[in-house]
Specification:
By secondary structure, the chain is mostly helical. The chain is built from 15 helices and no strands.
Length: about 400
């Protein structure tokens, strides 16, 4: 019999992670200009539907049905013989868990597959056609998310190597963040880079819901209720809070004003950065990770602004750099005393583990960047990736979707 407490908890966590995608739509929608609110929000909701379909038909089976020893990428393609309708096989890394039904695990992991590509969209807000986005969403799942999900969480080559990632520093944030940067370089800058957020209260609602959902994202990644679950939950809140305050203090000193959008962004940076570490590091490390997140991501955004990279909603600076910092600090602070299934980090004598984490995040980030750029180049040969100048100035909402977020005269 399954553990009913753990099963109930995981169903709640799965629901919380599902909530993160609509929350992201609110967060990004509030940051976008008033002509592009629906355009950015619809991309998140389309991921919610289309990524679910892909996961149900082939995604879960490709990521978690079997272990491939002849090269993970080739193995995934070669695994199509059992890759339909959430195929559950005896050699699945999940089989024998005993705590929760595998159907719950399928649903929980599906939510990660949904939100990861949605993160990327904030980088190219109001510049990409819907047709190109749909093609990108599909191909990116198959050739970036699924392989790295399998390699780390599905018993693949990086897992065999000893790489750890509790809830997605590599699988989610580093890959999405560096894919976002590649999209910025390919698509180019906005015609109007001075557009301002249309609704900071909507950003706050989205931020709060993301923070709420992140408890399911991180604590749920233990897949049961135990001491590690509680540790991951508290680490998540502590790191986010320290990052929020750190960002606020730095921006207050730098810009002479404690800006609300900055405060909200700082919290998201902390949440992204603690993600790979949450269930592997002691509680005393969470404030250090949060401070590193707030400072590191803030200065990454400043560097991006100096270089005039038009990552509109700072996906690279917050999620990409947050994922990198968190994965590296996992290699520093991880402790088997916290999680016996983890590893000891650099300060506990685990120098080789630190190097593995460093290599994994570099490899994944470089691959995500290079593949994303190549994918957009290929899609552009099929259909234009960037909207026309006329459509961009009119706004994605009306030009592509034929709708407006607000009635005439509002905002």
């Amino acid at each position: 019999m399954f553990n009913t407490g753990s099963t109930g908890f995981m169903l709640v966590c799965t629901s919380l992670v599902m909530l993160m995608t609509p929350a992201l739509a609110c967060f990004y929608g509030g940051l976008a200009s008033k002509r592009n609110i629906l355009g950015i929000m619809v991309q998140s909701f389309v991921s919610l539907g289309w990524s679910t379909l892909l996961w149900f038909v082939v995604g879960y089976s490709l990521c978690f049905s079997g272990t491939y020893h002849n090269g993970d990428f080739a193995g995934i393609i070669g695994n199509f013989d059992k890759a339909f309708l959430c195929g559950i096989t005896s050699d699945s890394p999940f089989s024998g868990n005993g705590e929760i039904p595998e159907f719950v695990f399928i649903a929980f992991q599906m939510m990660f597959a949904i939100v990861t590509p949605a993160l990327i969209t904030g980088a190219f807000v109001n510049r990409v056609t819907f047709k190109a986005y749909f093609l990108f969403l599909t191909a990116w799942q198959f050739l970036v998310y699924y392989p790295f999900c399998h390699m780390i969480w599905g018993g693949g080559i990086l897992a065999e190597w000893g790489v750890l990632d509790f809830a997605g520093g590599v699988v989610v944030h580093a890959t999405a963040g560096f894919a976002a940067l590649a999209s910025v370089f390919f698509v180019g800058a906005r015609a109007d880079k001075n557009s301002t957020p249309n609704s900071i209260p909507l950003v706050a609602i989205g931020s709060g819901l993301l923070w709420f959902g992140w408890y399911g994202f991180n604590a749920g990644s233990e897949l049961r209720v135990d001491g590690v679950t509680a540790n991951a939950f508290l680490n998540t809140d502590v790191a986010a809070s320290f990052a929020l305050v750190t960002w606020m203090v730095i921006e207050w000193a730098h810009a002479r004003k404690p800006k609300f959008v900055g405060i909200l962004t700082g919290s998201i940076a902390g949440l992204a950065t603690i993600t790979p570490c949450a269930g592997f590091v002691p509680l005393w490390a969470a404030p250090i990770i949060g401070i590193a997140a707030g400072a590191g991501c803030y200065f990454a955004v400043m560097w991006k602004n100096k270089k005039q990279w038009d990552d509109a909603l700072d996906v690279w600076g917050v999620h990409g750099i947050g994922g990198v910092i968190g994965t590296i600090l996992l290699g520093v602070f991880a402790s088997k005393a916290v999680n016996s299934s983890g590893a000891d980090g650099l300060i506990f004598g685990g120098g080789s583990f630190f190097l593995k984490e460093l290599a994994a995040v570099v490899i994944s980030s470089a691959y995500a960047f290079g593949f994303t750029y190549a994918l957009l180049w290929l899609i552009n040969k099929i259909t234009p990736v960037r909207v026309s100048e006329k459509e961009e100035m009119e706004g994605i909402d009306n030009a592509i979707h034929g709708e407006k977020a607000y009635d005439e005269g509002v905002l």
